[in-house]
Design a protein that fits this description.
Elements: E1 2-4, H1 16-23, E2 30-36, E3 41-47, E4 53-57, H2 63-72, E5 76-81, H3 93-100, E6 104-106, H4 111-114, E7 136-137, E8 143-146, E9 150-156, E10 165-169, E11 172-176, E12 179-180, E13 183-184, H5 194-205, E14 213-216, E15 222-223, H6 224-230
Parallel strand pairs: 4-5, 5-6, 6-7, 11-14
Antiparallel strand pairs: 1-2, 2-3, 3-4, 8-9, 9-10, 10-11, 12-13, 14-15
Length: 242
């Protein structure tokens, strides 16, 4: 599945709320969402319209599809950024890395997952092949620059995984599997922690403006304000799950 948000985000008929979000969000970056892999992971191409350099965020499968869409848009993949190291976000990592030569960036706490299919849970899907190791370790406060116009600020959001990160630019946050529309990431995997995830979301994501558009690791887009008001996991006195 493709959702193309080049220059100005246009109509994407998933649901009325989704269209409203997109129609009022304009951006100077190239942004395309691709739903890939066996678990319908949202992979993003984020590019600079001046240089056509681009980052791939979370290549979770279907490498040929990802590479083909980059070519169709005239983008040169210069970076691969991982919001975390679980298998459904790295399944196409090796192929995209080998095809593009782009360096791989991840938080240090999740970096060991790349080379250990037991830690990434890739073995659950029958794969024992490790992914390439990280080239760049991203920490909270780092800024990833893409071409001449795009900057993504790194926020550490552990809880779904120890090294989960979110990437923030003007009006936009890529939340990985920390925050979804109406839900949050699961915390029953090794390394998951429910209380830590809720604290991460509150301190690192809900501090963003309400009209910030959330591009999650799975499912439809939402906004910070929508989740602040209606997400059942972010209301007071919720029971611990996972």
């Amino acid at each position: 599945m493709i959702a193309d948000f080049r220059f100005a985000i246009g109509d994407w008929p998933i649901e009325n709320r989704q269209s409203e979000i997109e129609n009022r969000q304009e951006t100077t970056l190239i942004l395309q969402m691709l739903t890939v892999g066996s678990l319908a992971t949202n992979c993003y191409l984020v590019g600079c319209p001046q240089t056509n350099e681009a980052a791939v965020i979370d290549p979770g499968g279907d490498a040929d599809f990802i590479l083909g869409e980059a070519r169709r848009l005239g983008l040169k993949i210069t970076q691969i950024i991982l919001t975390h190291g679980h298998f459904d976000h790295i399944a196409a990592l090796r192929a995209v890395h080998e095809a593009s030569g782009a360096p791989i960036a991840i938080h240090p706490d999740d970096a060991p997952m790349l080379t250990n299919p037991l830690r990434s849970f890739a073995f659950w899907m029958g794969s024992l092949q490790p992914s390439p190791p990280a080239d760049v370790l991203l920490n909270a406060g780092d800024v990833v620059r893409i071409g001449g116009t795009v900057q993504l600020s790194v926020r550490h959001v552990p809880g779904h995984s120890p090294g989960g990160i979110a990437l923030v630019t003007t009006g936009v946050v890529f939340s990985g599997d920390a925050l979804f529309a109406g839900s949050i990431g699961r915390t029953d995997f090794p390394g998951g922690n429910y209380r830590q995830l809720i604290a991460s979301i509150r301190s690192q994501l809900l501090t963003l403006p309400d009209d910030t558009v959330v591009y999650p690791g799975h499912g439809p887009l939402t906004t910070i304000g929508e989740e602040r008001r209606y997400n059942p996991f972010l209301q007071s006195e919720q029971p611990e799950l996972g």
